[in-house]
Amino acid sequence: MMIGPLHAQIDSAEVYRQLFEEDEQLEPVLIIEDNNYPPKTAQVEDEDEDEKEGIPIFVSIQPALYFPNNANANYYNGSVKDITYNQNYIIQTVWDNPNNKPIIRDDLFLNNDQYNSIKFDESNFNYNMKYDIGLMIGFQAFVAFKPRLSLMLDFNFVSLNTASYITISVPDYESPNPDINSNVIKMNVYGKEQRFITDLGMHYIIGKQILKYYVEGGLNLVMAKATDNFFTTGEDGRQHTWNLKQTTNNTAQSTITSITVGAFAGAGFFFKMNEDFAFELGTAVAMDNVKFPGYDKYLSNIQVNIRIIYLSKNSKL
Hints:
Blueprint: H1 3-34, H2 40-53, E1 57-67, H3 90-95, H4 101-107, H5 112-117, E2 130-131, E3 134-146, E4 149-171, E5 182-206, E6 211-233, E7 240-243, E8 257-272, E9 277-289, E10 298-310
């Protein structure tokens, strides 16, 4: 009669033991979840996403107005002696060439005595040449080490023009005092110059509003080339052009190139239009040196620029 209940008692104990063992196996899992340990797979995915973002790189195009320094550009007016043989004025070598004489004489309505009496000195270059404002175009790349701090590298090109005149005093041999009574003739003179400017520096964005500010600064490399230099005689329809980049033997001189290192600093406004584009409006001042005969010193040049910036997808600006 005791067999039945004893059997039931043993079965109940066995079931309880199995349940207790299962609880012990599940308990460590529950403890891990209660301590809020993140799943290992999610941690690996987060690390992969950080690696995929990388360093943001922005690119931009920059049109600008380039205001050259107010120093004299007299290298182009023919008055610089130290690039010709025997320290003569450049224009004198053109004037003394017998092949040029009949053309220039007729253009200016001179006779032989008048033409031969003209010798150039400082009085012929009494109007200093100045550079005109130039239109500059540039391209930038920004490598962001921090969301608002970037290394900037840009390449810029500007073409500059300058114009003046050369005066000659022609004796009037028909008057009693030809040295006193003379006619003044002006000949237009022109120069053209190209500058390639490379900037390398830091660019930093300031502010938390939609309209922010930026400051930048660094070093630059300036390569300047004198591409053309000439004066003209005669009037429209019969005008002649005379190259001022000549030596005494009337052979064209190689284009003079100047390569120097300077510094720049700039500031302006930064505005982010959307996730892809931003623009900057600002100005920069550069201390540059152009080593052309007649001037060789560091002077300030100013630019006013607009930058259209394409932002990388992982920009945090």
